[in-house]
Amino acid sequence: MSNNFHPYHLVDPSPWPYTAACGVFLITLGGVIYFHYSFAWVLLLGFLVLSVTFVVWCRDVVREATFQGHHTEVVKKGLKIGMITFILSEICFFVAFFWAFFHSSLAPAIELGALWPPIGVQILNPFSVPLLNTAILLSSGATVTWSHHAIINGKREQSLLSLLFTVVLGIIFTSLQVMEYHEAPFAISDSVYGSVFYMATGFHGFHVLVGTTFLLVCLIRLVYHQFTRHHHFGFEAASWYWHFVDVVWLFLYVCVYWWGS
User: Fold this and answer.
1) Which of 99, 148, 188, 227 has the fewest Cβ atoms within 10 Å of its own Cβ atom?
2) How far apart are CA 151 and CA 114, in angstroms?
3) For the segment 162-176, what is each residue's pLDDT rounded down to a tens digit?
4) Does residue 261 surpass a pLDDT of 80?
């Protein structure tokens, strides 16, 4: 049936799922080769293929949504359900890290000296860079909400300015976390504390990087007038994801940085 007779989007045949699968395969194969032989070209090629696929696939989705009118209200409802489900899966992902943290910290094993933090681990000061990063990320949550309301109310200048603030704050957060990792007095191999700390905060930092890229794409689309008051789900998805990142960081700061110290 033609798309003219129903509200659903029947996508055209696309090569990008195939190239994405090839990129993931090359990353897996390249990772194994790198671990055994320190040969990184296959791994880098996989990342290159996956990155290019991501860019061109997103380009096609933007064209379908903005210029071809395929994202009807029914399609947008499905996209919203998909984004919410994705965020729920990310919550489960971080719950595993918090479970590992509390399992080890509430009843420290004798191998850790029956203490938390373990003996020999010099922890970070929660009231220095972590507290500053908390203020930065909460501020970015406020600016992205400001941008959302500005889009809904048709205030283009405010939406651009506030979204630019959000992207800059995300970059500052990532830069400060890199500096914190560089100066940290313990490594990921320093007992279960180091493992849980770097896995939890590292994956959160990766999510901040993804969210910043997501918002940067939205900023570019906003500059080119691709969002309207009633058609801006791409920005809504990015803002939901960013608020999720904010909430996870609050739990990380309170549990791992402050209480865990």
Assistant:
1) 99
2) 54
3) 999 999 999 999 999
4) no
